[in-house]
Write a structure and sequence with these properties.
Elements (H helix, E strand, L loop, with lengths): L3 E4 L14 E4 L2 E7 L2 E2 L4 E2 L4 H18 L7 E8 L5 H11 L6 E6 L9 E8 L1
Parallel strand pairs: 6-7
Antiparallel strand pairs: 1-2, 2-3, 3-8, 4-5, 6-8
C-alpha cells in the first residue's frame, strides 16, 4: 500500500467540491483539474483563452510546488476545452511553460466545464 497525502496551497484555488487540490501517492502527484480561477478572489480570470489558460497553468504550478515538485516533473496532462478552435492558443501557452521532453497529453472538447470556463487542465507529476 502506498503512502497517500492530500496537498493543499492557498496559492491555488480552493477545491469547490469534495476533492483535494492534489493527492501525493509515494512519488506520484495527481493534481485535480484546474480552471482559471484567481486564488485570492475565487473569480474567473479576465481575458481571452490565452489569459485564462495562463491562469490555469499558474494554478497547476502552485499545486506542483506545494507537493514538492515543479512543472518540470509533469509526465501527463489532460486538457478539456469547450471549443477545439482554442487548441492553438492553449498549445501556445502550454509551450511557454514546458521544455522538451514535453509531458504526454490528451486534449478533448467537452460540452461544458465548471463555472462556464473554456478550459480545465489536470496534471500528473512524478517526483
Amino acid at each position: 500500500m502506498s503512502n497517500k497525502a492530500a496537498i493543499h496551497t492557498s496559492k491555488a484555488p480552493a477545491a469547490i467540491g469534495p476533492y483535494s487540490q492534489a493527492i501525493k501517492a509515494d512519488n506520484t502527484v495527481y493534481i485535480s483539474g484546474q480552471i482559471p480561477l484567481v486564488p485570492e478572489t475565487m473569480e474567473v480570470a479576465e481575458g481571452d483563452i490565452s489569459a485564462k489558460t495562463t491562469q490555469v497553468f499558474e494554478n497547476l504550478k502552485a499545486v506542483a510546488e506545494a507537493a514538492g515538485g515543479s512543472l518540470k516533473d509533469a509526465v501527463k496532462l489532460n486538457i478539456s476545452v469547450t471549443d477545439l478552435n482554442d487548441f492553438a492558443a492553449v498549445n501556445a501557452v502550454m509551450a511557454s511553460y514546458f521544455e522538451q521532453p514535453y509531458p504526454a497529453r490528451a486534449c478533448v472538447q467537452v460540452a461544458a466545464l465548471p463555472k462556464g470556463v473554456p478550459v480545465e487542465i489536470e496534471m500528473i507529476l512524478v517526483l
